[in-house]
Design brief:
The protein is about 40% helix and about 15% strand. The protein has about 350 residues and is of the alpha+beta class. The chain has a domain of about 80 residues. The protein has an 8-stranded antiparallel beta sheet with strand order 2-3-4-5-1-8-10-9. Strands 6-7 form a two-stranded antiparallel ribbon.
Length: about 350
């Protein structure tokens, strides 16, 4: 049996400590108690090449070289990151800068990132370029301005697949047109606790807004962490939908007393401290309550919502190792951080 203190795990911890925190973890996060991050993503493909799932290795490598050439002229300095170790891959995945399905070691794959890790682009994932900008808190306008700037300069040296009738051509028909997805990651634990979350999320359909879990399309809204996004939604409508969601969450939180919040959070902490293994879903449920308590000031003053967000980003998520090993690592990770919080609610 592989232990949680194996050499491989120690190496991973060292790598994670050396990696910079992504920009969305900045403490200056507007509405950061409810909105964790905002994101704008563009999908683009280069004219003259097949989509990645139909491309040969030599074509994928040629696509990568073309995108690197375009990135070299971008006013936002972008580094090329390739040949990721598994520890580095887990860092980018936990920070939600890459997708779980990104074949990071396959031919023609790489990442383009800026120094702050606000900009991160996957090369040859589903499309030739998946450019995303992720910013802290409720700041979708900032994310969009930055993404548009980077895409504009890449487009000065690269010719994208486009159609007068359909717009940008993408591997998935759902992304045709602008090839853009706006999204925001919400913590809707008040609505979940009041049992109002399903109805509120259903109401977002009027804005053509869809919802997903913390780690994308395949994940559920465990721990009340919910991504709301739209691919064919105007910016004013998207902002209006998110403002509605923000207001409803604040109403639900106000209905819960400080005493009740403290009591439920202590129960969640006790569960984590007493567990030898934790599934990802159980770990997120615990952290959901601790995050709300930290936002409401019922945990020690030095513990804030952004600290919990860092825990989520660095906790074992969907790594490459056996799930039973990952479950033990999550338990050790949370026990170390939660034990000092037992009976410390004020």
């Amino acid at each position: 049996m592989v232990g949680v203190d194996s050499n491989a795990e120690a190496w991973k911890k060292m790598v994670l400590r050396s990696m910079p925190s992504p920009a969305w973890l900045h403490r200056d996060a507007p509405e950061g108690d409810v909105v964790i991050s905002s994101r704008v993503r563009y999908a683009r493909n280069i004219l003259g090449f097949p989509f990645p799932h139909h491309a040969s290795d030599s074509e994928l490598i040629a696509i990568k070289k073309e995108i690197e050439r375009g990135a070299a002229a971008c006013p936002v300095p972008l580094d090329v990151v390739e040949r990721l170790t598994e520890a580095e891959r887990d860092y980018y995945l936990g920070a939600r800068l890459i997708s779980p399905d990104f074949l990071h070691r396959a031919p023609g794959r790489c990442l383009l990132t800026d120094e702050s890790r606000m900009v991160c682009a996957m090369v040859n994932e589903e499309d030739h370029l998946r450019l995303q900008v992720v910013t802290a808190g409720w700041s979708v306008r900032t994310a969009e301005l930055t993404a548009n700037l980077v895409l504009k300069h890449l487009g000065q040296s690269l010719t994208w697949m486009e159609s007068e009738e359909l717009g940008a051509l993408t591997a998935s028909p759902s992304n045709l047109g602008e090839g853009m997805r706006r999204s925001a990651l919400f913590h809707l634990i008040g609505l979940a606790h009041s049992k109002r979350l399903p109805n509120v999320l259903k109401a977002l359909g009027a804005w053509n807004i869809v919802t997903r879990g913390l780690f994308g399309e395949a994940s559920r809204a465990v721990g009340a962490f919910v991504q709301v996004s739209g691919t064919h939604v105007d910016l004013p409508d998207f902002i209006g939908a998110c403002d509605y969601l923000l207001q409803e969450e604040r109403k639900s939180r106000r209905d819960v007393s400080r005493h009740s919040l403290t009591e439920i959070t202590q129960q969640a902490i006790s569960f984590a401290v007493g567990s030898n293994e934790l599934t990802l879903a159980d770990a997120l449920r615990v952290l959901g309550w601790v995050r709300w308590a930290a936002s409401a000031g019922v945990t020690p003053s030095e513990l804030g919502a952004r600290q919990i967000d860092l825990w989520i980003a660095t906790m074992e998520v969907n790594g490459t190792q056996d799930e039973s090993v990952a479950a033990r690592q999550r338990a050790v990770f949370l026990r170390k951080r939660c034990e000092p919080l037992l009976s410390s609610g004020r």
